[in-house]
Amino acid sequence: MELAILKQTGEDTGRKVTLSEDIFSQEPNDHAIYLDVKQYLANKRQGTHKSKERAEITGSTKKIKKQKGTGGARAGSIKSPIFRGGGRVFGPRPRDYSFKLNKKLKQVARKSALSYKVKENGLVICEDLVFDAPRTKEYIKLLTNLSLSDKKTLVVVADINKNLYLSARNLQKTKVRMVNELNTYELLDADSLVLCEGAVSKLETLLSK
């Protein structure tokens, strides 16, 4: 399939790029997407949550009342979970939520996300972006020219572009990523995906391995 390459002004350059059918037009695998997004979110969790159990509560261990004859349930310690201020039963403990996924499955998930973007007309191919200095106004103008100012966008570049990154850093609804930083979650989270011309071949090479 072919898509037109746009200038930074939003005009057509008159050139087209041929996209790989295997990457941008395959049948999406929803389960692969689910697993990849689940792993991405799980790996971001700190897992530092902790609550005190009865062995960690400060308090007397003296038996608070006699075992029998009170008419109520027996109680051995004020730190029991049934009392106010007592320890928590089966409370959260620090743990690692991360898990591993097969590399090929992650590739299938990213290909599926890209295919969804093409189906939803959410893919824009733009000429390589060059910013002489970090200017947020210039970046906003770029999005306006591409008719993406009111959408959540993900801009993908071939190589590190510090000025472009700094120009977009303060804006909430847009992100700039290099090809090797792409993940399924951010692909699906964006309304529109802007692929720079130089990033297309690198992306296809990365996902063809």
UniProtKB/TrEMBL annotation:
GO CC aspect terms: ribosome
Matches recorded under Gene3D superfamilies: 3.40.1370.10
Keyword Nucleotide-binding carried by entry: no
Pfam family, one: Ribosomal_L4
Residue ranges of the region described as Disordered: 45-77
Transmembrane segments: none
Keywords associated with the record: Ribonucleoprotein, Ribosomal protein, RNA-binding, rRNA-binding
InterPro entries: Ribosomal_uL4, Ribosomal_uL4-like, Ribosomal_uL4_dom_sf
Role of this protein: One of the primary rRNA binding proteins, this protein initially binds near the 5'-end of the 23S rRNA. It is important during the early stages of 50S assembly. It makes multiple contacts with different domains of the 23S rRNA in the assembled 50S subunit and ribosome. Forms part of the polypeptide exit tunnel.
Similarity comment text for this entry: Belongs to the universal ribosomal protein uL4 family.
Oligomer status and interactors: Part of the 50S ribosomal subunit.
Entries under PANTHER family matching the protein: 50S RIBOSOMAL PROTEIN L4, LARGE RIBOSOMAL SUBUNIT PROTEIN UL4M
Protein name: Large ribosomal subunit protein uL4
Organism: Cyclobacterium jeungdonense
Lineage: Bacteria, Pseudomonadati, Bacteroidota, Cytophagia, Cytophagales
Protein's gene: rplD
